[in-house]
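re: ur question from the group chat, yeah i did fold both. here u go
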Amino acid sequence: MIDDDNSYLADFRARLDLPGIIDVHTHFMPERVLSKVWSYFDSVGPLTGRSWPIAYREDEQVRLKTLRDFGVRAFTSLVYPHKPEMAAWLNDWTAEFAARTPECLHTATFYPEPGAADYVATALERGARVFKVHIQVGDFPPGDPLLTPVWGLLEDAGVPALIHCGSGPAPGRFTGPEPIAELLRRFPRLKLIVAHMGTPEYAQFLDLAERHDGVYLDTTMVWTDFSEADAPFPVAEYGRVREYGERILFGSDFPNIPYSYGHAIQALERLELGDDWVGQVCYRNAVDLFSLS
C-alpha cells in the first residue's frame, strides 16, 4: 500500500507527463442519499462476512479538496435511483452541483417510468455529459420498454451511459452481459461505459467491446488487492486489455472505497502494460470521449 497518496500521485503524473487524472467513476450525491449509501456499506460486513470501511467519509468540501489535491482534473457525480419518482430530482441536484463545481462532468440518471424520456431530454438540454445507470440497485432490465425512447435519445446525442451491469459484487435479476448485448443489438450506436470492467464477467464484456466500438470499460476497483481477493481478473485477458486500451477509462468509486485512492492507480501500474497504456487510461481516453480541452 501507499504511505502518502499526494506524493505518489504527484510523482505518477510527473513520470507519465500527465496534466492530471480524469476519474469517470466518483460519487457526489445529496447528503441524505449519500448517508444511506454509507449505511449500506457499513452493513456489508454482516451481510457478506467482509467489512467495507469508507476511506473518505468526509463532508463534500473536504472530498472535493481531496480529489483536487490528488491532481484529479475532471470527475463525475454518479447518482442512481432505486425507485420511481427519484431520478428527476437527483438530476436537478446534479445540475446544480455541476454548475458550482467546474471540474465535474455534468452527470444525470434515469429509471424506467413514465416521463423518463422527458426528464432525460431536459438533462441533455441542460448539458448532461454522462448518465449513470445501476441495473443491480435499480433492479430493472435495461431493455424495459419504458426506456426505449431514453436509449434512443442517448444514442442520437452521442452521450454515454456509465452502467453497472456486471453481476458483482452480488448478482441481480437483470445483471450480466446478455441484457447488454441485446440492448446493443437494438441501439448499435449507443455509447456505454461498463463499470468495474463488468466484474466478474470480464471476458464477456470484453467480447462486447470487441464487437461494438461504442463500448468502453472503467477500471473501478479492478486489480486492487481488495477486488483481486474475491474476483481476480483473468491474466489470460491481459492481451485484450492492452489491445482495447483506447476504450478503458480510469474510475475509482471515490469516496466509497475501502483503501487509499492511490492504490487504484498503483494497481494499474503494476499490470506492467506500459506507461502509454496507463496514460491513456488515466487521462487521454477521457479527454477524447468527453472532448475535454
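okk and heres the other one u asked abt
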Amino acid sequence: MAAAESEMKMRILLAAKKLFAKQGFDGTSVRQICEEAGANVALVSYYFGGKENVFRALFENFFPGQRMSEYETLLKDPVEGLRLLVTEVIMFGMEDIEFSTILQQELEMRSARTEIVTSFTAPIWRKARELLEQGRAQGVFQFDSLDHAWMFVMGAALAHKKIINYASMLSESELDPEQTASQTVKYIFAAFRPSGTSA
C-alpha cells in the first residue's frame, strides 16, 4: 500500500513537472495534472494539500541543492567547492530541462512562488560567494570586487540556459553537459587565477 502511494505521488509530481514546464504554473490546472498522471483529481489535495504544495514538493524531490550537506568536506575547499557547485548547476540545468525551465520561468516572472524558488537556490549562491571570499583570503583566487566575481560565476554557470536563442551560431549541434561544465569551470578559474600561477 505504501509503495503504491509513493508511486502515485511520484506520478503526480512528474506530471506536474512536465506540465508546469510546458504551460507554466498558472496555465496548468489540478485536473490536467491528474489526467496526465492517470490519477483521481482528489489526490492532489489528499497527498499535497493543493497545487502550490505540489510546486514546493518538486523542489524537495528533484532539486539537487538539497544534497549540499553530502559534500560538506569538498565545500570547505574554495577551489574544489566552487568546481562542485558550478558543475552541479550546469549539469542540473542541462539534464533536467523541465525543472530548469520551471525554475527560470518563476524567477523571470517574479511570480508569487519566487520565494519558494529562492529558498532552495539561495543557499547554493550564498555558498559560492563564501567560497570566493575564502579563496581570495587564502590567495588562491584574485579579483577586485567580490560582488562582480560572484555575478561572473553565476552568469557563467547559467549561460547555457540562454544558448537556445543563439543555437544557430554554435559549431556543435548539441552541447555535452559534462564538457560544458568542465570548460566553464576552466574559464572561471583562469579568470580568478593569481598572476604567475597555473590552473
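fwiw on the second one: Residues 114-138 form the longest helix (25 residues). The chain has a mean pLDDT of 89. idk if thats what u expected
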